[in-house]
């Protein structure tokens, strides 16, 4: 039965024109040359499934853990401000339940919307300022979580999609072509890249709005930063996909090396002091360094105060040198 299942048509729609119609049974399949370009050896199927599953589950658990810690810290600060000793058990249970169901980031969007509505309906200026600050802070936290989600969860999956698509395209023969539905896959990849790049610009803009000591970014400045990020990230993404298609699992070695180099880079140039009011500041600091190093796999990112020229110069120098090596090796192989 397992063998018969292995002979079914591939699930990827744009591969259907590349395969010879497969027989429904082993007996009918005799003498038919099967083209199974989208299949893995049976021993690797479980590893591939676990790998794709981990790209989804691990990031979302991490994001909800961060969201829960932020909620806990905000609650602690609120209790200090009103001299309350105990938090309402109902609100605590509700918060925990929301994060268990992986809906934590939605809390910050809801808080921003509620604060914005209260700001609109407030009468005196002092109350308006209070709710406006709450709205800005919630929007800042929501955009930061969205930024983390884009580069910890979305971009690795987009990298896998690009590897599969380009690998199939590279195997096309002269008389074969992709179906029209394949272009929807290209559109999906492009939209994911645009969304991820926009999350950086939006996070940077919202962060500056929340900082009284920083000038706000105009719409033009935000758009120009988006163009800059899209250009650099798409170039980096292309290098990684080409190398992955050429050398397959060796891409993991490259990503691990880049990750550890980024750990050193971030620890040396961007290590920040965490506020002592935060719960477990040492753990949060280590988590931020690891997250920033993961983001550096796709693009340099600064999370510390102070001059940024040396941080970005170091990050982009590493990226350019690595890109030259990856493209040169890929072109030689492909």
Automatic annotation (TrEMBL):
Subcellular location: Cell membrane; Membrane
Membrane among keywords: yes
Alphabetical UniProt keywords: Cell membrane, Membrane, Transmembrane, Transmembrane helix
Database matches in Pfam families: XK-related (PF09815)
GO cellular component, one term: plasma membrane
Membrane topology, from the record: Multi-pass membrane protein
Domain of life: Eukaryota
GO biological process: one example: apoptotic process involved in development
Principal location listed in the UniProt entry: membrane
Bilayer-spanning residue ranges: 46-70, 90-110, 182-202, 250-271, 283-303, 309-333
PANTHER family, sorted: XK-RELATED PROTEIN
Family according to the record: Belongs to the XK family.
Record protein name field: XK-related protein
Native species: Syphacia muris
């Amino acid at each position: 039965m397992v063998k018969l299942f292995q002979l079914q048509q591939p699930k990827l729609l744009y591969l259907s024109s590349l395969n010879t119609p497969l027989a429904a049974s082993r007996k009918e399949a005799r003498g038919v040359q099967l083209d199974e370009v989208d299949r893995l050896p049976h021993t690797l199927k479980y590893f591939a499934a676990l790998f794709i599953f981990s790209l989804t589950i691990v990031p979302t658990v991490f994001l909800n853990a961060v969201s829960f810690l932020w909620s806990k810290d905000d609650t602690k600060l609120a209790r200090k401000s009103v001299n309350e000793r105990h938090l309402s058990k109902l609100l605590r249970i509700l918060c925990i339940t929301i994060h268990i169901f992986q809906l934590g980031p939605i809390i910050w969007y809801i808080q921003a919307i509620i604060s914005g509505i209260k700001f609109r309906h407030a009468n005196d200026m002092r109350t308006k300022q209070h709710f406006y600050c709450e709205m800005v802070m919630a929007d800042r936290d929501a955009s930061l979580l969205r930024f983390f989600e884009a580069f910890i969860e979305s971009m690795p999956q987009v990298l896998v999609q690009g590897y599969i698509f380009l690998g199939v395209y590279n195997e096309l023969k002269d008389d074969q072509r992709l179906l029209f539905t394949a272009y929807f896959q290209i559109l999906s990849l492009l939209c994911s890249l645009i969304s991820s790049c926009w999350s950086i610009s939006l996070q940077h803009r919202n962060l500056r709005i929340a900082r009284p000591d920083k000038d706000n970014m105009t719409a033009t400045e935000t758009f120009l930063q988006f163009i800059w990020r899209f250009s650099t990230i798409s170039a980096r993404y292309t290098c990684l996909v080409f190398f992955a298609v050429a050398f397959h699992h060796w891409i993991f070695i490259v990503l691990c090396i880049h990750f550890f180099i980024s750990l050193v880079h971030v620890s040396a140039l961007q290590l920040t002091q965490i506020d002592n009011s935060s719960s477990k500041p040492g753990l949060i600091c280590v988590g931020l360094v690891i997250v920033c190093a993961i983001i550096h796999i796709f693009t340099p990112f600064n999370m510390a105060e102070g001059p940024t020229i040396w941080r970005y110069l170091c990050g982009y120098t590493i990226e350019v040198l690595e890109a030259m090596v990856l493209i040169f090796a890929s072109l030689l192989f492909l």
